[in-house]
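Study both lines:
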Amino acid sequence: MADRAALAAFLRARREALQPEDVGLPRGRRRRTGGLRREEVAALCDISVDYYVQLEQPRGPRPSEQVLAATARGLRLSLDERDHLFRIAGHTAPRRVRHADHISPGMMRILDHLEDTPAQVMNHLGETLKQTRSAVALLGDETAHVGLARSAHYRWFTDPASRLVHPESDHAALSRLMAADLHGAYTHDGEQSRAARLVDTLNQESPEFAALWHRRLVLGPHCASKRFLHSQVGALELHCQTLVDPEQSERLVVYTAVPGTENHTNLQLLSLLPIAEGTASSIDSARPW
């Protein structure tokens, strides 16, 4: 059973402990008290303000595991704090396995300061957990996919539309990278893992993947550049830098361009583009649960 009072008290305590600077927000002159406002936390958690207020009062329906996971990310909870949040809300704490969707507080702090840069946090299965606004402008809302399609590896080998963002001449090399990356996840997680199920499905659905999988490709450390085709700013060649959190197998992928180049100019234009309707919820607006 959920402990409503404990849940409300815990959320208030964590909200009041967070400062605007901790989550990349300006403090402003009119902020009289410490901590974050409820509407700020709701936006960080991708839930509606009214729903978050109900959690702190406490009233309303018991939060789902999906809402709790989003709240843990928004409040920058540690794994221990996330587990406590689940338990007092009446849920079993998620298993601490590599495919968890929890983003570490440190990784979130870094992402908070990259808002004008295409950057996103992904797990080892290629599932995008969080994107900056510029990343959505470059790649689309990759957090909106469900099921197997959450994985960029799966989309690459089963959905031709996922390849349109890259020149056709680069597809073969990117396919090898995708297959090698998934091979690393499979090797680490074993035959009873989500990685194994993803591999089995792709072997059945994609002859291209099956041929590459048979080669047992291995992906070494790399920071290769990638070429993109964008409908509004044109061709882009960006450097891809990856920061890995070994404990959670999270990857912060950041795309940059050399200052003074045409690519850098186009990248700056990208950050000014409006986000298409229906994608903002993955960045900073509230969802009504």
About this structure: The domain at 4-88 is CATH 1.10.260.40 (434 Repressor (Amino-terminal Domain)). Residues 171-189 form the longest helix (19 residues).
